[in-house]
Task: structure prediction
Amino acid sequence: MIVSVNEAVERLKAGDVVAFPTETVYGLGADAKNPEAVRKTFQVKGRPADNPLIVHISNMEQAGILSNALPDHFFTLAKTFWPGPLTMVVQKSAVVPDVVSGGLSTVGLRMPDHPLALELISRVGPLTAPSANRSGKPSPTHPRHIEEDYGNELPLVDGGAANIGLESTVIDLTGSVPVILRPGAVSVGMISEQTGIRVQPFSESRKPDAPKSPGVKYTHYKPDASVNWFDRLPASPDSSVLYLFHSRTGYPPEKNICHFHGNFEQMARELFDLFRLADHLRYNQILIEPLPDDQKHPMISPLRNRIEKAIGV
Ligand code: TXA
Ligand code: MG
Result:
């Protein structure tokens, strides 16, 4: 149910959850200082309580209240990439309710680059927001995805299609070397070029032992259709398969054949919508052209990560 910004503010202040747009994906917002409201987020989304939520802020003063131990890198990265698709994990202060952090002593902070999100936060205060999909579905990049997942009941602020389409980069600043816990539109290369800060790149291999980012142990982003990288294609396409090509190779464009012509931003923006489309149109399979090296483009690492999660590797 689409609501105005004014109504969203009233509902959030009253302890309701409201979906709202950010530049990455839609979030399911709640007043971060109201434990009851935050608890509702987990219920509505069907999310395990030990998977912590990101707190979204609209100014640096809020960061200083939510954490008493902001490291130097935090300020450098905030100055360079905020507002924007970067979530920084820092030690949390006592102001952050335990339900927000899933029992951890840390909290993820992000200042989103979206006027409606920033307006809501400046009028209500910091907002917790996981991606607004139901657990196990791709993150919503369009208001209609939220209506698909929840029907018309959930209040929603309409900001149209999300600009980036994949969730923010999550970086852990609590150790001696910053570590990427989830790749997003702010890449390791951008961080080192623009700030000189050296970070440990994202590594799937950290996953099995001790997941630093609790979210990585849960299945995400899974369409009903099976997803695979392809190596060799048959001479003609199969009409029950959705094909995604990023280079100039492949079959001529068709309803089930998408070409991105090297535009990885566009591929990122459309990926989750295509996953959902594949299910609506009952494709059996999604076959994706293997991606080039991560260094070729900042969106390749996050694309690979979301596609591999959908493949289930
Ligand atoms: O782009 C985004 O980040 C979106 C928009 C709405 O801001 N939000 C989002 O939230 O993707 P969510 O909850 O779907 O994913 C947050 C990820 C999860 O994998 C979670 O485990 C991790 O960040 N995370 C959150 N707080 C953390 C913490 N204190 N320590 C480690 N990982 C944390
Ligand atoms: Mg999510």
